[in-house]
Write a structure and sequence with these properties.
Mean pLDDT: 82
Oligomer: single chain
Structural class: alpha+beta
Shape: elongated
Order of helices and strands: HHHHEEEEHEEEHEEEH
CATH topology of the largest domain: Helix Hairpins
Radius of gyration: 34 Å
Strand content: 15-25%
């Protein structure tokens, strides 16, 4: 009982001396939390009005709230006489250690922030990045998820994407399909061009603007190679790619235009 009475007396004495500071600190804590919540909400609202991605908005709000509330608690603790110097030093050392341990993750976070702010691509776009080509299905704060043309899921770190080349096939809404078809040297190039242009103009997924193009690409070893270039929307790329190759082959056959096999002419010298 003497032990309890001793510490109870010390507590009462501390409250008499620091009671006003404690009430002021509690009042400051309540008001501070209210202001921080309002500030965080205002920042989030402003970011949403400017079209910032929702995941970045929520993360930014959480980061602002946690950081400011931590500073507020430290300030309130110092108001009632609690020594906070050691706590701040420990917090700083812990932050440094975590930063060094997670430097790769932090790089991906920074990359994700840049991608969500500058938006070089959006969900649904067809892009090529880090050696992968596919449709963007999800943009998270650390990684971007792609679905490739062969229906594989590829998860690419945002740090690598933000520091590398990005080819966005969907930005302009139109993409050129590059095909090469060879015809024999004795075939009529003008007729082959007409046949292939007719095939592309009849295809319902080939765009008329820009107009399809057929021209001589090169004079190969065994054939005159024609560049066949229809345009389509990115979502129809592979459908147009395979359809034009198949329909073009059938149309050239019907027009009696030969697509030669690779061949080599051998000249035999008579022996003396």
């Amino acid at each position: 009982m003497d032990f309890i009475a001793k510490y109870l007396g010390m507590a009462i004495e501390w409250l008499i001396v620091n009671g006003a500071s404690l009430v002021l600190a509690l009042f400051g804590l309540v008001i501070g939390f209210w202001i921080i919540n309002r500030l965080s909400h205002g920042v989030g609202k402003t970011m949403k009005k400017r079209g910032v991605d929702g995941s970045l908005v929520s993360f930014t709000q959480s980061l602002i709230g946690f950081g400011l509330k931590t500073l507020l608690v430290i300030s309130v603790a110092s108001m009632i006489g609690i020594e906070t110097t050691s706590f701040v030093a420990i917090l700083g050392a812990a932050g440094l250690a975590v930063g060094l341990a997670l430097q790769g993750t932090l790089a991906n976070f920074a990359g994700g922030v840049l991608l969500l702010i500058f938006k070089p691509y959006k969900v649904g776009h067809l892009i090529e990045a880090q050696g992968h080509t596919g449709w963007v299905t999800e943009i998270q704060i650390f990684v971007t998820t792609l679905t490739t043309v062969d229906n594989k899921t590829v998860i690419v770190p945002n740090g690598a994407i933000s520091n590398g080349d990005i080819v966005n096939y969907s930005t302009l809404g139109k993409i050129r399909v590059d095909l090469v078809m060879g015809i024999s040297y004795d075939s009529d190039i003008r007729k082959a061009r007409e046949v292939l242009l007719e095939v592309m103009n009849k295809h319902d997924k080939v765009l008329s603007d820009p107009a399809p193009f057929v021209g001589v690409l090169e004079l190969g070893d065994s054939a005159v190679n024609l560049a066949v270039q229809p345009y389509c929307i990115p979502e129809d790329y592979w459908g147009v790619y395979f359809d034009i190759y198949e329909s073009g082959k059938i149309a050239l056959d019907e027009a009696n235009i030969n697509i030669p096999f690779p061949q080599v002419d051998v000249h035999m010298k008579p022996q003396a």
